[in-house]
Amino acid sequence: MKIAVVGTGYVGLSNAVLLARHNSVVALDIDAEKVSLLRKGKSPIKDEIIESLLAGGSLDLEVVTDQELAFHGADFVIVATPTDYDPETNYFNTSSVEAVIADVLAISPETTIVIKSTVPVGFTAQMQQKFGVDKVIFSPEFLREGRALYDNLHPSRIIVGSNSEQAHAFAALLAQAAERPDVPILFTGSTEAEAIKLFANTYLAMRVAYFNELDTYAVTHALDARQIIDGVGLDPRIGGHYNNPSFGYGGYCLPKDTRQMLANFSDTPNNLIKAIVDSNHTRMDFIAEDILHREPQKVGVYRLIMKAGSDNFRASAIQGIMSRIQSAGVEMVIYEPALEMERFHEVEVVKSFEEFVQSCDVIISNRMEEELTPYIKKVYTRDLFGSD
User: Would you name the residues annotated as active-site residues?
Assistant: First the structure.
């Protein structure tokens, strides 16, 4: 089969590489620099398995900037363009997805379009009605930054928001590409599939928020948060996973997906969904105040990335802490090797780790890293378990 993938971020590139092991795949991106890198067998995102497979040269993968070349004759076009949350409309900005659908239908009207971008509940049905077609399908993506291809090779489930022949063919493609045998496959309505994606991510955000509030209580009352979490996690209904306190949830998905979920609840009675969104702001307020109580002269921000093994710092929780400390007038400096600029949000970025640690009296780090261990007395983190 010929498969086109639009967008080469975490979702798009992991799907392109996954499927190019057994199919002919054309990846399309408007970013010429990304395209150039990929043509050289180099990944624009940090993911060890993607990097290895691209460098190996065994993939049937072409990377282009030409829509006609990508879409013409394709059996499937996978849409993986970004849908950032727009605070003015309280909804995802789906303009890029709509534009791709229009372009595919103009170039190759028989092609089945599979939306992998996260969209509002009801979006796919709206697109089917708007364009008068039934070959627009939604299939949610469940992956972690830095582990995107691993999660596609070992999927927890495959969900396709259609029960059509094309939907079954697409699910079979994903199952064939997976290394996990007997992957659970669920065919649902398109709107139900969209809801599954948002409810799943909102639940994960709720779990992060819960253990963060547990940690806030423990700190406030001088209790050992780790002992409490260990005890709570021994209940098999809760489990000892996804329980490590942090500065808050962040990254590509959870902040925007929870706000989109709340927007979808605008005409539905709710308390919990709003509390999940509000809790993250409250946690960041608490963390910033706890740091400021130490009366630091200069605060060092160690890494802006969300977690180890990732190069993404979009909407990272530590930036929320940073902005609050900035507002208090405390001098700050950032150590982030992934940044090439000299200043980030009006804060100096230093390249030397030694200069960084020596110049600060408090170093804040969402996750504890080994190179910080010699300076542990300066480090402020809520990482109790050394995991993400």
Answer: 253
